[in-house]
Backbone:
């Protein structure tokens, strides 16, 4: 069975990233903006896993020694993705807390109403 | 061939659900679309043979993040109606242009990359994955072992090679959750900040009432005259 080329995944994740960016720019509701940021983080995760699965870590040979070691951990992609997921979860928790606080103060969840600090 | 068809179906559905999340008027519909998008990303992880990550994706994103977002939507139902969640048309057109431009730049970069990093092929030539099938298992390349037994290796590496990052992530999560609770904690009425806000609101109410009163007396006086 023939594999899918790597670039297909890259195009898909680029398209998802663009859609998420559109959401951040278009929506006014703060929770909708948070959801669009999640889409962008997921696009980045797809990229990380795709590069991990298609690349093979080259070995580096040190001059003067016969030892050749892997240039990177063969597990770097999934570990990186797991940390991204962790950060995303923390970000959503803090974001929802902030949005609830702002909603109680100004009775609105629209990002353009939170302009008290604007000069 | 089956892989290509699967990839096409999953990608098209994924893009549709992402667009639905971004463009749906109703926020609850948007959140449900987001759940579908998370699920389709998990399917992409399965296509990439990262089953452990697909499970993590479903557990963390669909099980926790989506539910948290749902709570947020329910607690901040927009009292002005759902139509305020979109921006004016000119801004909308500009945003579409920016998003299209970003996609064009990324796609151009992917399509025209000539040379990979040192020791690696350019992306266009990466059409075959390193083989990790059952026949290669006896050769025991690290990659084959990891792909076939990812949870075990992720767990081992998190506590050996990446232990510092793991601990820092744990501290970050604790701090974030404590911070979220502190931020969202309901303030008591004797909190000075809310008292100031309330007195301002009360003053504004009084002023509005006085205005209405004076205009009414003006109106009545003019009508009696």
Residues:
């Amino acid at each position: 069975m023939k594999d899918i080329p790597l670039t297909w995944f890259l195009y898909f994740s680029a398209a998802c990233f663009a859609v998420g960016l559109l959401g951040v720019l278009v929506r006014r509701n703060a929770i909708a903006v948070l959801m669009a940021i999640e889409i962008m983080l997921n696009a980045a995760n797809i990229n990380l896993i795709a590069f991990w699965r298609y690349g093979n870590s080259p070995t580096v040979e040190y001059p003067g020694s016969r030892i050749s070691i892997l240039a990177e951990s063969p597990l770097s992609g999934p570990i990186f993705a797991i940390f991204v997921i962790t950060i995303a979860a923390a970000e959503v928790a803090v974001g929802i807390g902030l949005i609830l606080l702002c909603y109680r103060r100004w009775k609105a969840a629209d990002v353009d109403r939170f302009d008290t600090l604007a000069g | 061939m089956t892989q290509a068809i699967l990839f096409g179906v999953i990608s098209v559905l994924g893009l549709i659900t992402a667009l639905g999340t971004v463009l749906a008027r109703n926020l609850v519909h948007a959140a449900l679309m987001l759940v579908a998008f998370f699920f389709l990303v998990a399917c992409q992880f399965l296509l990439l043979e990262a089953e452990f990550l697909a499970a993590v994706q479903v557990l963390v994103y669909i099980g926790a993040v989506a539910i948290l977002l749902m709570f947020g939507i329910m607690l901040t139902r927009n009292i002005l109606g759902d139509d305020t969640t979109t921006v004016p048309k000119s801004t909308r057109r500009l945003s579409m242009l920016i998003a299209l431009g970003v996609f064009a730049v990324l796609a151009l970069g992917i399509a025209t990359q000539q040379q990979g990093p040192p020791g690696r092929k350019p992306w266009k030539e990466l059409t075959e994955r390193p083989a990790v099938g059952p026949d290669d298992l006896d050769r025991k390349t690290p990659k084959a072992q990891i792909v076939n037994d990812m949870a075990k290796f992720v767990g081992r590496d998190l506590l050996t090679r990446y232990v510092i990052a793991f601990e820092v992530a744990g501290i970050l999560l604790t701090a974030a959750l404590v911070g979220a609770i502190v931020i969202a904690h309901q303030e008591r009425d004797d909190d000075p900040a809310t008292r100031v806000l309330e007195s301002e609101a009360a003053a504004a109410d009084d002023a509005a009432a006085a205005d209405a009163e004076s205009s009414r007396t003006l109106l009545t006086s003019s009508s009696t005259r």
